[in-house]
Amino acid sequence: MKLITNIVLLIFFLINAESARSQSLIEAYRIYDRTGKEASLEEMSSKLSENDVILFGEMHNNPIDHWLQLELIKHLHKTEKLTLGAEMFERDNQLVLNEYLLGTIALDHFKKEAKLWPNYTTDYAPLVEFAKENGLAFIATNVPRRYASLVARQGLQALDSLTDDAKRFLPALPFLVDTNDLGYKDMIAMMGGHGMNIDYLVAAQALKDYTMASAISENFIEKGLFVHFNGSFHSQKFSGINTYLGRLNANLNIGVIASAESENLDFQDEWKELGDFIIVTNASMTKTH
Q1: Which of 78, 141, 206, 207 could covalently link to 177 via disulfide, CB atoms 3.0 to 4.6 Å apart?
Q2: CA pair distance 180, 177, nearest whole angstrom
């Protein structure tokens, strides 16, 4: 009887020890749909595959976001005809990106000649290598940063001074900045009163969004799925890239993934407006750069 009692006590101790151990672990992330219902990667992938375009809004230095990007396209590639694109590559780098994808140039030449972000190796190389291995197109969608910088300093009218050769890397001009865009309203609220010309800064942001939207629209393949990677601010609240894509091709169905960080991963009402799905990462997560 004593032996049985000891065994029962031991089992009780082990169960409680395991429970205490599991409760002490920090949860890394959760995925929610816009109603606040928790979702798996597979559920998110299945739902978003019903669209023509997926805008994956990331936090640039968040390792969970980058891991989920790769896992998402792996999952989608099983059933969908994918085209990939990213903010992290500028339109004047399309040739060198294509040459690397086709095996024309080696990785060291690609790294030297493309304007790669500091976290390319850890965060974006896996996406490019997946495209390379599977013969997928990867579109450099962003405006060359020198032109966005020009607009931030002098306004949209400064683009008129560019040569025709330079304008090859820009979308069709002129274009209007949508002052009703929720993203730009947020930007004005955050940046106003900092001694900068906020109208020029918003115009530079809009130029990036319009350029990326144009590249997506131009390279979208009928009955295909274009997955685009960009900072969450460029597409959250269905703004930014969404606004210009809707103008360029109103027939496109667009799915939006947004990203957020929080010490508490329980769903917050303010996240509802961010996207169709929201990836919430623990704020203590180690950054990639």
Answers
A1: 206
A2: 9
